[in-house]
Amino acid sequence: MKCPFCGNPESKVIDSRPAEEGTTIRRRRECLKCQRRFTTYEIMERLPLVVIKRNGSRQGFDKVKLINGMVRACEKRPVPLTEIERIADQIEQELQGSLEREISSTAIGEMVMMHLRDLDEVAYVRFASVYRSFKDIDTFMQELTKLMDDKK
């Protein structure tokens, strides 16, 4: 790391600690030439994720939209917001960890449904009814029957 005071490329780390909820590392350094101290921050590089919508359009991944969709599904249910945020973080980590930079909204919806199914069955059915656009009561009942069969 180049010293901001004298330009020397050699420095030693004095202290290192996580910052900003663990997404950044703060390091105190000391220049080996002028002995002045300075602070650097290491930030994990995140590659942008692009979501391919059903109509073929593309837009950037937005975790807030993901959370809002799950909040609507969990309305009036005993599901804490912290749990919804944890699921959103987990889905975002899975997406960032994959080698794909473009992901379909369908795949994201399936991931949400998988998590909601384990979290709250009513929220799962609500989300699935909007996500899968149930055309009639029969398709809705098929999903409920499948859920009940899996529960047994």
> What general outline do the C-alpha atoms trace?
elongated
Structural class, judged by helices and strands?
alpha+beta
Low-confidence stretches: none
Tally of separate helices: 5
- Compute the average pLDDT: 88
Approximately how much helix is present in the residues?
40-55%
User: What is the H/E string?
Assistant: EEEEEHHEHHH
Query: What profile does the largest beta sheet have?
Result: 3 strands, antiparallel
Termini gap: 59 Å
Query: What is the beta-strand fraction?
Result: 15-25%
Which sequence of strands runs across the widest sheet? 1-2-3
Keywords:
elongated, alpha+beta, 152 residues, three-stranded mixed beta sheet, 6 strands, three-stranded antiparallel beta sheet
Verbal overview:
- This protein has helices at 63-73, 81-97, 105-119, 121-131, 137-151, and strands at residues 11-19, 24-31, 37-43, 50-52, 58-60, 102-104.
- The protein is of the alpha+beta class and 152 residues long.
- Strands 1-2-3 form a 3-stranded antiparallel beta sheet, with no helix packed on it. The protein has a 3-stranded mixed beta sheet with strand order 5-4-6.
- The mean pLDDT is 88.
What is the topological layout?
Layout: E1 11-19, E2 24-31, E3 37-43, E4 50-52, E5 58-60, H1 63-73, H2 81-97, E6 102-104, H3 105-119, H4 121-131, H5 137-151
Parallel strand pairs: 4-6
Antiparallel strand pairs: 1-2, 2-3, 4-5
Helix pairs in contact: 1-2, 1-4, 3-4, 4-5
Summarize the model shown.
The protein has 152 residues and is an alpha+beta fold. The chain contains 5 helices and 6 strands; from the N terminus they run βββββααβααα. The strands form 2 sheets. A 3-stranded antiparallel beta sheet has the order 1-2-3, with no helix packed on it. Strands 5-4-6 form a 3-stranded mixed beta sheet.
